[in-house]
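Hey, resending since the last one bounced:
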Amino acid sequence: MTAATPVYLDYNATGRVRPAVIEAVAEAMRQGGNASSIHHFGRIARKKVEDAREQVAALVGARPELVVFTGGGTEADNLAIRGLPAKRLIVSAIEHGAVLAPALLHDPKAVILPVDGAGAIDLPALEAALASAPRPALVSVMYANNETGVLQPMPRIGEIAHRHGAWLHSDCVQAAGKVPLDLGTLGADLISLSAHKLGGPQGVGALVLAADLDLAAQNVGGGQERGRRSGTENVPGIAGFGVAAALAKAELPALAERVGRLRDDLERRVLAASPGARVYGRQAPRLPNTSSLSMPGRNADVQVMAFDLVGIAISAGAACSSGKVSASHVLAAMGIEDDEAKRAIRVSLGWQSSAGDVDRFLTAWQAIEAGCGRQPDAA
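The structure tokens again:
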């Protein structure tokens, strides 16, 4: 009997790499060359970097010269947090650790903004924080939450921040390729991106500026990226990032509609099969591909292992903690009790997801909840 093909439902952890991206990365590696070299090989490498810069800029409506390539979304977040001369940092309680950790390290008095039960930022709290903060302040609010998919009202947040003379940074790592992104309407001064979330290679990202800000480099030495980020460019990774960005832009409307239908069908069937199940952030605008769910009577670590045993990949909240599973700080900020939050899993779909994947997930969900699925001894 042939084993069933594994089902991948963890695109928010990392997207499935596009075949065209693999080819672009391989071609860049075969050709070689340092993008800072002036000979033939260096010029080829430089063209790949600049072509990718234009492709990434086009994805978010930015000027190519204001795209700063980094080693990933975390580095981009750190560069934004540390690179501006802000006298106060104001961040939301649901930020990724790539923002929360450097913000609290850089400014021990950083203001942590609360969210409501749907995961939306408390705008009056933002107004109050900015009114009392020394100027200039830096506000950092993620556009799309990596666990719940909840979207924030970025233009409104930008209007409030700018009225108080503050900069606005937005971690758009999860939003890119899933919802339209345009710097002209988003309201942010800087946004962070990561290639692997939209079908590109891991280990490459970008900080994209809306204007030519005086950004202090955190990596200094060779002066690459117009002095904003020194270090030899990862030409294969950047080339792959560019291809992934171009594909994401071209396919976004149709893909968002398709995965949105799949996600909505999955949630509808889960709630019908399990009256005690809960979907977090469902009442708010969300990414079309993301669902944060809790299963009655089963902790998230047990669920993740049980799903994996039947060939289905999901995650318990964020997948950035070296495999550890703990109660989500995002759900805690939304007022979810710790015991319930420990039962929450994240299902995230992408370009290879199908109706058959949803069917298999539902079959496994019902078996695991009933206690008759292939579960580890800890169950």
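The longest strand covers residues 88-92.

Sorry for the duplicate.
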